[in-house]
Amino acid sequence: xxxxxxxxxxxxxxxxxxxxxxxxxxxxxxxxxxxxxxxxxxxxxxxxxxxxxxxxxxxxxxxxxxxxxxxxxxxxxxxxxxxxxxxxxxxxxxxxxxxxxxxxxxxxxxxxxxxxxxxxxxxxxxxxxxxxxxxxxxxxxxxxxxxxxxxxxxxxxxxxxxxxxxxxxxxxxxxxxxxxxxxxxxxxxxxxxxxxxxxxxxxxxxxxxxxxxxxxxxxxxxxxxxxxxxxxxxxxxxxxxxxxxxxxxxxxxxxxxxxxxxxxxxxxxxxxxxxxxxxxxxxxxxxxxxxxxxxxxxxxxxxxxxxxxxxxxxxxxxxxxxxxxxxxxxxxxxxxxxxxxxxxxxxxxxxxxxxxxxxxxxxxxxxxxxxxxxxxxxxxxxxxxxxxxxxxxxxxxxxxxxxxxxxxxxxxxxxxxxxxxxxxxxxxxxxxxxxxxxxxxxxxxxxxxxxxxxxxxxxxxxxxxxxxxxxxxxxxxxxxxxxxxxxxxxxxxxxxxxxx
Amino acid sequence: xxxxxxxxxxxxxxxxxxxxxxxxxxxxxxxxxxxxxxxxxxxxxxxxxxxxxxxxxxxxxxxxxxxxxxxxxxxxxxxxxxxxxxxxxxxxxxxxxxxxxxxxxxxxxxxxxxxxxxxxxxxxxxxxxxxxxxxxxxxxxxxxxxxxxxxxxxxxxxxxxxxxxxxxxxxxxxxxxxxxxxxxxxxxxxxxxxxxxxxxxxxxxxxxxxxxxxxxxxxxxxxxxxxxxxxxxxxxxxxxxxxxxxxxxxxxxxxxxxxxxxxxxxxxxxxxxxxxxxxxxxxxxxxxxxxxxxxxxxxxxxxxxxxxxxxxxxxxxxxxxxxxxxxxxxxxxxxxxxxxxxxxxxxxxxxxxxxxxxxxxxxxxxxxxxxxxxxxxxxxxxxxxxxxxxxxxxxxxxxxxxxxxxxxxxxxxxxxxxxxxxxxxxxxxxxxxxxxxxxxxxxxxxxxxxxxxxxxxxxxxxxxxxxxxxxxxxxxxxxxxxxxxxxxxxxxxxxxxxxx
Lengths: 500, 500
What we know:
The structure is a homodimer.
Chain A: H1 3-30, H2 37-55, H3 58-68, H4 75-93, H5 96-119, H6 122-143, H7 149-157, H8 163-187, H9 194-197, H10 203-217, E1 224-228, E2 234-238, E3 241-246, H11 253-271, H12 288-302, H13 306-319, H14 329-335, H15 353-369, H16 377-389, H17 415-434, H18 438-443, H19 448-457, H20 467-475, H21 482-496
Parallel strand pairs in A: 1-3
Antiparallel strand pairs in A: 2-3
Helix pairs in contact in A: 1-2, 1-3, 3-4, 5-6, 6-7, 8-21, 10-11, 10-13, 11-12, 12-17, 13-14, 15-16, 15-17, 17-21
């Protein structure tokens, strides 16, 4: 067997464990009986350890060294070797005891964060957070970096991402979006939300609506499922078994529909992978930013467009005939695009969302660099919300304690959400050049052309290129905030009649 | 670490893989999307291979040799060592290539059986069946036996079981039960089934009825689930996560209720295991016969008793008020105890069921011994049905092709079904001695005393003893058909007014 074949066989073994772990995790969130929690944690830890042992097998290092010296590699082979090297280095650079310490701390930290948020008392979480920051710094030192420690953390979630790349993206975004939001707030043109808020929305109708829309987009339910979970996500085991979840609130019909479209974006990406690259890292979905581009595109760029609202209105009317009486496509479009500064990121609208991310990004940079002390964090958080969004949290639970990420040690993760928004806009702008009838197609509910474009330019390209290179290949330009800013300015002007 | 601790650690690792395989299998039957089938098969094969590699690790053989020489072992330690030895020997005695050949043949054989049954054409399955028999003989030779090849196959499913032990049990049973059935048939006292067959039974009502009954029995739904699948089964991963399934037919309300009680019997057994023996073979449920005793006890001995019917009638009335109008507890009791010779084993009543098993047992003995040729099997099958049950299959699909087991190479499995019935009767007779108010308790829906008795004498005893010894410890007598025969004679006399 050649070194390359042996490497692929070993990677398949690791991927198989990952697939099994995917099912264990999905089941845990969706339907596992409560008393099974402790032993499920053991099963997941077993799978994680089994995968880690195989990944850090010195034989993989030997194979990589041999293969990296080869000269005749095609792009898939080169990508598999590069990606295996990244995984191998990340896994072997962290000492086993350090990984165990992080895992143990994560469990404790999650508990204290949960309690702190419930009791609205930052001091309960304070020491664990301080240690999480310290561990994140150590992790960065183990992994290595060129300029900033924080770069090593960003790279975990999006290969090649650095502060030097991110700062200009965020600056361009902030300079354009912040004044736009200010203009909307000052215009006092709040759309009519009374028909939404004044009605009750039966779960059965929301389910039928979500199902109809996600089938129309092209999610294959013979190779996947829709279920309910507290925290919506897209998981499963492989392209033949993609499982996403949503949640229902009878007072808010938008959460389940747009959540479903979001997860359908993730799901169609997974279903669209190159099947001749099964079990190979080159065939896997690209970094988190690109993944998020697919979810945000269907959720926002498509789902909150005027054309989509015109297409979907009859479905709304079919499933909620009484509630929708007298509601026009325009009224629906305005309601799903309410722009309003708010405290909670996960509930934020398309315009204000990225400001929530920027706040966290600025704070993380300073925390990791040691420019901001943990004791000063809660007030710094509130000050930044006041500065960026003009509102201030009345308590810590709605402020610094709202997100789970830091309790899990996930520093460097948040920026991928904004990257997703930027990539989505950039990809759709590029797709429009090939699909001149795009708006009309959406109005007719013809989603296949857009999905096919994403299949060809994104899904089928897997991880053969690094994320920024994939975006450049697909759109002709490196990642930039321009397409998103233009999209948002245009939309806000049409909705609110304001410019900035 | 001591040799014993190392053995337990290795056994835990193997059990963990088994638990994960349990979830993969459950998911496959219950909710996996159809296109996921091929990769799920790969995942299951991966888990099976991973477990097999660990089980056949020569280090286990070394540890066992060392431990078998120890003198101071308590009963749990001795059982763990004995059971690990059995598994190790069974796994190592079969050459890897032979195991692979069996697995490959099983897949092909399953396909040809499915086609043969659908087309009612035995010839399609004939060659595969002949090879299955040949492989079963080879397997027996690899595993070893004292008297008969068939003994080695019986031992796979119930440790210590042999033809010498089974023949007297079956003979005693046949001599008593066959005339009883004949007497019932001749009496022409068929109960009134018109209220059952003439009504439609909504699935929602059947679900509520099953749920109410299984909760009352004491199945813990915080540590388990009820779902729907084509082939009902009880699976899951461990005592904290026991998952059973049932199926619904709107023309037959008994199938789902008694199927649910059957699986609840299996499920309460799993939930009742000794938790200080988690991951240890000594703590696992005993052989298939004992497992089946728990399911058949709740399904038949309890569920088809006059007292249970009196207790459950109000539940029937609650969920099916119109259908149950005018139906008395006695009429319900008579209907759920219809005794009638039929062709299909899985639909057979309590009295005729064991004759179906005996036919397969006699045939398997002769096939494995070479006393019956495959080409003569279909007619031999029909002749035995005529002899034992007085009916003859109109075609092969309802005859020799009805069961899946032989296509899976499972020779020696069927007898455990009848053992389950015998053990159930014997255990309940013993429990009655400790529970003098048993009948009254069932009439009041107080199932806890009986469940507690089974917990103490069966569930908590795990696999510390071999099956026959467990039955003797719990009941004071070795396995015997007497309790079952007495139970059946008494019941048939009360129902049909006949004796034999």
